[in-house]
Design goal:
Elements: E1 3-5, E2 10-13, E3 19-22, E4 31-34, E5 39-43, E6 47-49, E7 52-54, E8 64-68, H1 74-79, E9 96-100, E10 117-121, E11 124-128, E12 132-135, H2 141-158, H3 164-177
Antiparallel strand pairs: 1-2, 2-5, 3-4, 6-7, 8-9, 10-11, 11-12
Helix pairs in contact: 2-3
């Protein structure tokens, strides 16, 4: 991906495959390779449903897969309406859709989690399995909550009335929820 426009959620994409162009008049047929032009304003897939969405900070250089439609998608792209195509064009470079996130073997994700769903960005990570873990680059949410309950326990011994039962419930809840 060359660039991404957050306002239109569209991308400028340079295909990472070369096209084979026949040399005129060559016998037997000979081919030369050429780059495709940069595809402009390619709609990018964003996971949404109803009023919910899951977005990621898409940046230049992110890999994507471009799928090409059979027909002109200009009317749908500009209005969202079902309509006849604007033109008779078919299988055209102008009618692509980008799916961001496909990775080639040279750029596989490190430490792929096979036991929990993960949402990670920079040094932070949210893991969801039968329990939840929220890890920052220096501290986990579980550790923070444990530190808070430890501080409350110390405070409880110095003040009255006793909050020991409430603190015990919070500690149990933390253990039940967090990895």
């Amino acid at each position: 991906m060359v660039s991404f426009d957050t306002t239109t959620q569209s991308a400028w994409v340079q295909l990472a495959v070369l096209r084979m162009v026949p040399q005129p008049g060559s016998n037997p047929p000979a081919y030369v390779t050429k780059t495709y032009p940069v595809l402009v304003q390619v709609p990018v897939y964003i996971a949404t449903g109803g009023t919910g969405r899951l977005t990621f900070p898409i940046v230049a250089g992110d890999p994507c897969l471009v799928l090409f439609n059979d027909r002109d998608i200009d009317t749908w792209w500009t209005t969202g309406n079902t309509a006849a195509p604007n033109t008779p064009r078919a299988h055209d470079l102008s009618d692509g859709l980008a799916l961001v996130g496909f990775r080639n073997k040279a750029n596989q994700l490190a430490n792929y989690n096979t036991t929990a769903a993960e949402l990670a960005y920079a040094g932070g990570k949210l893991k969801v399995a039968d329990k939840v873990a929220l890890d920052g680059s220096a501290l986990t949410l579980k550790q923070l909550l444990t530190d808070i309950t430890a501080a409350l326990t110390v405070l409880d011994t110095k003040t009255g009335p006793s909050a020991a039962a409430a603190i015990a419930v919070v500690n149990t809840d933390i253990s039940n929820l967090m990895l």
